Amino acid sequence: MLGRVFNDWKLSNVITAGSGRPMSAQVTGDPNGDGNQNNDRLPGMRRNLLTGPNYFTVDMRAARKLHVTERWRLEAMAECFNLMNRNNKRIVAGDNGFYVTGADFVPYRVVIGSSQYPAYIKQYTRYATATSAYAPRQVQLALRVRF
Predict the structure, then answer these.
(1) Closest CA to 59 of 39, 31, 83
(2) Where are the chain's structural domains?
(3) What is the pTM of this model?
(4) CB 25: neighbour CB atoms within 10 A?
(5) Per-residue pLDDT reduced to its tens digit, 58-72
(6) What is the rounded distance in angstroms from the CA atom of residue 114 to the CA atom of residue 110?
(7) DSSP E strands: which ranges in the chain?
(8) How many Å apart are CA 10 and CA 78, to the nearest integer?
(9) Distance CA 112, CA 119 (A)
(10) What are the φ and ψ backbone dihedral angles of 6, each rounded to 5 degrees?
């Protein structure tokens, strides 16, 4: 009797964990005037100075085969992604995920008093803060018929 209840189960899981990714504080525009707008950082900020948020998630799957007849079988499955429902924060970074725009280089001329400044750097107030999160807990159920 117990064999019918506990036989034909499959359990599996995937655990994904990672420390925060290094980020560089990029500046849009071309403040150093080299013609490349993708290599400029905020003044005083070295490459990969910042670290993004860490990530941890557990995915789990449980499946069981049910023998209906000699020829027909059912396989019931339940899958859960982000089982612990951890809030994995996400910083919107560049296309490669390694840099975050921290400021804009504004190349217009600015006059303050009698002094003329050819450009300025406008920093963002919410720079390098999480603006979204990865997916919350998700559960999916499936039933497969084999014959």
Answers:
(1) 83
(2) 2-142
(3) 0.66
(4) 24
(5) 999 999 998 889 899
(6) 10
(7) 9-18, 22-28, 50-51, 55-67, 73-81, 89-90, 99-106, 110-112, 115-117, 120-123, 132-133, 138-146
(8) 11
(9) 12
(10) -105, -5
C-alpha span between 98 and 128 (Å, rounded): 12
Strand, helix or coil for residue 2: helix
Instruction: Extract the tokens encoding 38.
Output: 């993708």
pLDDT digit string, tens, across residues 85-123: 999 998 765 544 445 677 777 766 667 777 766 676 777
DSSP readout, 38-62? TS-B-TT--TT-EE---EEEEEEEE
Q: Are 99 and 24 in contact, with CB atoms under 8 Å apart?
A: yes
Report the half-sphere exposure of 89 (CA within 13 A, side-chain side): 12
Name residue, tokens 């720079």.
Answer: 127
Helix/strand/coil for 3: helix
What DSSP character marks residue 21? P
Which token pair is 108? 């217009």
State the Cα angle at 91 between 88 and 95, rounded to 5°. 120
Pairing of strands 115-117, 55-67: unpaired
